[in-house]
Design brief:
- With 442 residues, the protein is mainly α.
- It has 2 domains: 196 residues, MFS general substrate transporter like domains (Growth Hormone, Chain: A); 213 residues, Growth Hormone, Chain: A (Up-down Bundle).
- Helix 1 runs antiparallel to helix 6, helix 5 runs antiparallel to helix 6 and helix 7 runs antiparallel to helix 13.
Length: 442
């Protein structure tokens, strides 16, 4: 296995250092453009069902296929990006997301609708994986913040177009909305792709944050798959994603069961029904948490930040189930849960880049990102448990357990493992010192 030491061929200039912020903004623009493939889909379900009467469950299969394609193909797409650069692949992703919504607009059968979901998932996966991977490569000294800003754009980007999409659907039909916004978001991605590139020698500083230990070796994806820290990260990310998804995916039914969904709540000078207020606040906080905790992790360390965030999420879920019957507390504590959950999409990619290097960062994080897909396949277990027990309590207890176990693993297993891992790579990379010859006696 080849050993690669950090490059010292060139020192970053002010121009190259500013160029990396341009690259970060390009990745963020691409993420904002594709956000509606996931977060805007719900607006189309009822209109499609009203026209074709396929049933909402059958229509939602298209969304499931989108998520699976968007998640599980990222490692392969990341490999192509690491090998050929981001420009061509992201441009292809832009074409695919535009074509996907064009297919959806003309879909007259479930097969066509499912095809649109798969095509859109492939395109979104290319843009998502490349944008996060590029952020990790360009910002070895601020990986948490860069990954957090990029990941936040995927959630927060939908806030810019949810109202226009809903308005266009009601005034001109869902088909027009699919075509118009599909073309628009495709063009934005393609334009961003034309300026994207991977960093060259001397483009970025080699020294990271002193509080974040980083490996000096560039691991290939196959080498990473043989490394124990990767599988620890994979298990942790699956647990945290599954726990958070199980708790948050049931927010609507929980509000209904506790009879608070339509009760007016006044906070921050606004008055709304508890459920839509909670959903709006949750989306905002789920976006803010990613750069916030990413920035914190750059300064106090990834594992310390994980311990705080995961512990806070478990506490938030505990408070939510305890006070869900109080409308204002239902809104506040659901917001706390989302704030402490979304950071997994900044902390885990940053940690992956720290441990396994930046050369193959897109592919390597793509492999770790499949943990989200694994978690999404396990989330329906929550409904099975609810049906079997008739209570939300087992789901909440499981989510809390996952959070607090994750916090313990981060601080007491991952943190010492990282120290041994990084120091071991440093020793392996150190040049061998030849023994001093002993003069012969004759």
């Amino acid at each position: 296995m080849a050993m690669t030491a950090p490059s010292t061929a060139g020192t970053p200039t002010p121009m190259t250092l500013s160029a990396r912020w341009v690259q970060l903004i390009l990745g963020i623009a691409g993420m904002v453009a594709i956000a509606n493939l996931q977060y805007g889909w719900t607006l189309f379900v009822n209109p499609i069902d009203a026209k074709f009467h396929w049933g909402k469950a059958a229509i939602q299969v298209a969304f499931t296929l989108f998520v699976l394609a968007e998640t599980w193909l990222v490692p392969f797409e990341g490999y192509l990006v690491d090998r050929f650069g981001p420009r061509l692949l992201v441009a292809l992703g832009g074409v695919l997301v535009g074509v996907a919504w064009w297919i959806n607009a003309g879909a007259s059968s479930l097969i066509m609708l499912y095809t649109g979901g798969v095509v859109g998932g492939v395109g979104a996966g290319i843009v998502y994986g490349t944008s996060v991977g590029n952020a990790l490569k360009w910002f070895p000294d601020h990986r948490g913040l860069a990954a957090g800003l990029t990941a936040a754009a995927f959630g927060a980007g939908s806030a810019l177009t949810i109202v226009p999409i809903a308005s266009m659907i009601s005034q001109r039909g869902y088909e027009t909305a699919f075509v118009s916004f599909g073309i628009g978001q495709g063009i934005v991605v393609i334009l961003a792709a034309l300026l994207m590139r991977a960093p060259r020698a001397g483009d970025v500083p080699e020294v990271g944050q002193p509080s974040v230990e980083q490996s000096s070796r560039e691991f290939t994806p196959l080498e990473m798959l043989k490394a124990p820290p990767f599988w620890l990260l994979y298990v942790m990310m699956t647990m945290l994603a599954m726990g958070g998804l199980m708790a948050t995916a049931q927010l609507g039914p929980i509000a209904g069961d506790y009879k608070v969904a339509k009760v007016p709540v006044s906070l921050f000078g606004l008055t709304m029904a508890a459920l839509p207020f909670a959903l709006s606040l949750d989306r905002i906080l789920n976006g803010l948490t990613r750069p916030f905790f990413g920035w914190v992790s750059d300064h106090i360390g990834r594992e310390n930040t994980m311990f705080i965030a995961f512990g806070l999420e478990g506490l938030g879920i505990l408070l939510l189930i305890t006070f869900a019957h109080v409308p204002v507390l239902f809104v506040v504590f659901s917001g706390l849960v989302f704030f402490a959950w979304g950071e997994i999409y900044s902390l885990f990619p940053a940690t992956c880049g720290d441990l396994f290097g930046r050369k193959f960062a897109t592919t390597n994080y793509g492999l770790l990102y499949t943990a989200k897909g694994t978690a999404s396949l396990l989330v329906p277990l929550g409904n099975v448990v609810k049906g079997a027990t008739g209570s939300w309590m087992p789901i909440f207890i499981l989510a809390i357990a996952f959070d607090w176990i994750g916090a313990i693993l981060a601080l007491f297993v991952l943190k010492p493992l990282r120290k041994r891992w990084v120091s071991g790579q440093a020793r392996a990379a150190a040049p061998a010192v030849a023994p001093t010859p002993v003069p012969s006696r004759r």
